[in-house]
Amino acid sequence: MTTLETRDLTIRFGGHIAVNCVSCTFRPGELTAIVGPNGAGKTTYFNLISGQLRPTGGSILFDGADITQLSAPLRTRAGLGRAFQLTNLFPNLSVEENVRLAVQSAHGVHYDMLRPWMTRRDLIARADAILDEVALGGRRNVAATALSHGDQRKLEVALMMALEPKVFMFDEPTAGMSIDEVPVVLNLIAKLKQDSSKTILLVEHKMDVVRSLADRIIVLHNGQLVADGKPAEVIASPIVQEAYLGIAPGKSAA
Ligand SMILES: Nc1ncnc2c1ncn2[C@@H]1O[C@H](COP(=O)(O)OP(=O)(O)OP(=O)(O)O)[C@@H](O)[C@H]1O
Fold this sequence. Notes:
Layout: E1 4-13, E2 16-26, E3 31-35, H1 42-50, E4 57-62, E5 65-66, H2 72-78, E6 80-82, H3 95-106, H4 121-133, H5 149-162, E7 167-171, H6 182-193, E8 199-203, H7 207-213, E9 216-221, E10 224-229, H8 231-236, H9 238-244
Parallel strand pairs: 3-8, 3-9, 6-7, 7-8
Antiparallel strand pairs: 1-2, 1-4, 4-5, 9-10
Helix pairs in contact: 3-4, 3-5, 4-5
The chain binds adenosine-5'-triphosphate.
Adenosine-5'-triphosphate binds near residues 13, 40, 42, 43 and 44.
């Protein structure tokens, strides 16, 4: 079964082809790491899938439906989860308020003067559980904008979890985090993996993170898909050794 598929997905910026005819399928219960050197097209590929960019060629299928022309918000509503950027959210609201709003949105609960949201104990409990999972319970009353970089990344993950998507897309989720903050996010992703109905895509530079989490690795290089397979096979392949890890054939990877 396939949740998500890109067919010959392509985008040109002027004369430069940032993503070049990438065909790939993503399945539930599988965490696919997307790796490749700087400028390989990983983030652009993510932006195409989540709808931040429109392709110049090819198509994207989600649950069998062609979503190539669907807006980013509609893709989110359909179940494609991409970590939010706090600038697009409510930076002056507290951590707790942000998570509650995301939970509320996921359950289709809108502002209702006759029924204050505080009566929805189930949704409040869900928001509290997510805050605990991302280890932000102690920061619940802090304005999102006042969080440390690491805590902001955790809040982004919390908001994505609150929306209960079918596909989770993580773009370097631990980038810029201090060493003691990293395990919280990695453990969260590992926990998400236990739900076999979820499809997880992870763009990641750190090979130790990729090794510990990935069921499969795809490699982008100059916008093209150059390798796709089990982590051990892909890491050992000559193209990854040379193009990505910068290791001459015949030598072993670190
Ligand atoms: N909006 C844009 N306009 C023009 N060129 C762009 C645009 N976005 C990306 N590019 C170019 O497309 C190529 C792929 O960039 P992208 O950010 O997707 O690479 P990446 O693999 O995510 O790199 P990194 O690992 O450094 O984040 C780069 O050459 C980049 O300069």
